[in-house]
Write a structure and sequence with these properties.
There is one protein chain. This protein has two domains: 8-236, P-loop containing nucleotide triphosphate hydrolases (Rossmann fold); 240-354, OB fold (Dihydrolipoamide Acetyltransferase, E2P) (Beta Barrel), CATH 2.40.50.140. 23% of the residues lie in helices and 33% in strands. The chain has eight helices and 20 strands. The chain has a six-stranded mixed sheet with strand order 6-7-8-3-9-10, with helices on both faces. A five-stranded antiparallel sheet has the order 13-12-11-14-20, with no helix packed on it. α2 (96-106) crosses α3 and α2 runs parallel beside α4. The radius of gyration is 25 Å and the shape is elongated. The mean pLDDT is 93. The structure holds adenosine-5'-diphosphate (ADP) and magnesium ion. Magnesium ion (MG) binds at residues 46-47.
């Protein structure tokens, strides 16, 4: 039995520009056929990572291994990769067909092969009749599809996408997310999607690598990084998070009673592995996991400040006594709130996550 090498392996790849390290040594193994999202705020090093993989940048340390071969010193056109850039980078003086055929021409493909392949690619992105058009005659969404067709024409082993939908308006972007995902599934191609859009990363990928300051903070299945964030940064970057601090008071079976700050607030149960009595902890609870009810012992007393209808759910903004930071609760139906606005907040023990890195 042969064990296939991972399609991509980054071994301690790092990069500095002008003495500033923009990518700390990064280790990453990809799985054949997966869509991996590189998610992080602007400037965190996503594009640099992609350019190192593609060969447009040379790493200061480490190596880029593609399908078991060390490609660190290999020029971009010898790596067998396809790339879609943020601004598409289509050739404006060429037709759609010539753009799609570009990589094939560079490889010296025959005219018959080029024709066949261009047709197949245009059919895949549903722009069959556009072969002779100029790039300037295409809409943003169509240009995006042509850039994708061009990147896939040479049958790359990995597809690299740098904010491919960033220039499209919301509706079109959501449609293209499904289309892109569908094409990726049909081809079974290994794919890296760079994005700063949390929703896009969560809906499109098999795994998400959350980056900050040139570092991957956490890698995992979308539900895993969303529901079990390890740091405050990851919990807040992936959506709204309610952050609490408290002190561990007692163990009860597989859960722990934690006295939430400020003193006397409440002592809810938190499911967690080993904690120490007296330990200070920071925890995160998603707005949809907080439960609104009447004030009672064991519930956190809070005051409702605002209720906003957001279409798919209701968002409650609440405050704790003497706390600046608001809390957010999302509910499917509108809950009854007493005239004085005072409610009790509870959660299931496994809905709160103890953060390993409070920062
Ligand atoms: N060629 C370059 N020369 C100098 N600085 C660069 C260069 N490319 C990127 N940087 C810097 O590296 C950091 C990471 O950039 P980048 O990888 O483009 O971030 P992202 O794609 O996550 O927004 C930024 O601070 C950026 O200014
Ligand atoms: Mg970028």
């Amino acid at each position: 039995m042969t064990v296939l090498a991972p399609p991509l392996r980054l071994v301690d790849v790092s990069k500095s520009f002008g003495g500033v390290q923009v990518l700390k040594p990064l280790r990453l193994d990809m799985v054949q056929g997966e869509m991996l999202a590189l998610l992080g705020p602007s400037g965190c090093g996503k594009t640099t990572t992609l350019r190192l993989i593609a060969g447009f940048e040379v790493p200061d340390t480490g190596s880029v291994v593609i399908n078991g071969r060390d490609m660190t010193a290999m020029p971009p056109n010898k790596r067998g990769l396809g790339m879609v850039f943020q601004n598409y980078s289509l050739f404006p003086h060429m037709t759609v067909g010539e753009n799609v055929a570009f990589g094939l021409r560079m490889r010296g493909a025959s005219a018959a092969e080029k024709t066949k392949r261009v047709r197949a690619m245009l059919q895949m992105v549903r722009l069959e009749s556009f072969e002779d058009r100029r790039i300037s005659q295409l809409s943003g969404g169509q240009q995006q599809r042509i850039a994708l067709a061009r990147a896939l024409a040479t049958e790359p082993s990995i597809l690299l996408l740098d904010e491919p939908l960033g220039a499209l308006d919301k509706n079109l972007r959501e449609r293209m997310q499904f289309e892109l995902r569908d094409i990726q599934h049909r081809l079974g191609i290994t794919c890296i999607l760079v994005t700063h859009d949390q929703e896009e990363a969560l809906t499109m990928s098999d795994r998400v690598a959350v980056m900050a300051h040139g570092e991957v903070k956490q890698v995992g299945h979308p539900t895993d990084v969303y529901e079990r964030p390890r740091s405050r940064f990851v919990s807040e970057f992936l959506g709204t998070a309610n952050i609490f601090t408290g002190t561990v008071k007692a163990q009860e079976g597989a859960a722990w009673r934690v006295a939430i700050d400020p003193r006397g607030c409440a002592e809810p149960l938190i499911a967690a592995e080993t904690l120490q009595l007296g330990q200070r902890v920071t925890l995160a609870v998603r707005p949809e996991k907080l439960v609104l009810g009447p004030p009672k012992a064991d519930a956190i007393t809070a005051r409702v400040r605002d209720i906003v209808f957001r279409g798919a759910y209701f968002a409650y903004e609440l405050t704790l006594p003497n706390q600046e930071q608001p809390l957010f609760v999302y509910t499917q139906k509108r809950e009854a709130v007493p005239d004085d606005g005072i409610v009790g907040l509870t959660w299931a023990p496994d809905s709160a996550v103890i953060l390993e890195e409070p920062a």
